[in-house]
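Predict structure. Input: EAL domain-containing protein, 292 residues.
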Amino acid sequence: SAAQSGLNRALIIDQSRARQHTEQLRLGQRLRRDLQRGRLSVHYQPVVDLRTGELRSAEALARWTDEERGPVPPAEFIPLALELNLMPALTRLVLLRAYRVARTTSDLLGRNFRVALNLSAAELHSEDFRERVSRFMTHHPQAAHYLELEVTEQALIHDLPGVSHTLGVLQAQGLSVALDDFGTGYSSLAVLQQLPVNKLKIDRSFVQGLEHDARQRLITTAVVNLARQLNITVVAEGVETARQLQRLREMNCDQVQGYLISRPVSTRQWLEQVHGWTAVPAGPNALLPPRR
Ligand code: C2E
Ligand code: MG
Ligand code: MG
Ligand code: MG
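Output follows.
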């Protein structure tokens, strides 16, 4: 009967949901275990000066290869880590490695070099996080000058004054703060006024619109000008084409990051890239690393 087949369908859906649920649980257990064993890796993507082609900083991006499923994208394991309260462990892993790579890179370049790490909204709101960062800085007093923190607008909506305070304290210790994925959140321009930020990263979605969308171009130009007037460094992320690069140059954007320059690469590949970079005389044509 119809009722019977409806019931069967409901049962099948139930079973498949239960299976998915079990799969997620197992995936989460493996993530926890791999984190405990330090089996996640971190990739690095360069951020370069649009005018001189010089290497300015790098962004640290977490990578996880699950033994059963293979590479799992951050868009999947970051939410899982959040749900399972594994972000402190993940951030710690990324922080330690980013710091080490920043110091090695600084040595290679003969100047101070920062590596940026991404923070989740929840971390910025937690007192525990602030304490952990302070403790880290006590043990590594130099670290502040080698690190940058990326926060999204999303992290600000619940408690702008609180997060502003936290970031202000961290900034006073020497850390650099970047507002990530700018343009995708709900923030008003007032955020820029209230938040202590050194850098603003224009989201990839705006950069993609630069070639064909006059409106996007206008908005991006306005954001670049505003940031410059506020003395905030502007970075365009997700730059994939030479045309986009040209547009950004016309707008006087400060720095760029994206596949056109380099994909995020392993530590070994990163250090090789830096070696190559030091050999290049800085100039507008030095934007691409010589060896890839
Ligand atoms: P995000 O911070 O905005 O990082 C930039 C993302 O854009 C990275 O994706 C990067 O690989 C990608 N990307 C860079 N250039 C291009 C380009 O030219 N074209 C395209 N299509 N994509 C480009 P990924 O590594 O998959 O990370 C995604 C997001 O996951 C990050 O976005 C960040 O929010 C989060 N995430 C990654 N690692 C961490 C971490 O260690 N901690 C936290 N809290 N979040 C992380
Ligand atoms: Mg980021
Ligand atoms: Mg970003
Ligand atoms: Mg983004």
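The mean pLDDT is 89.
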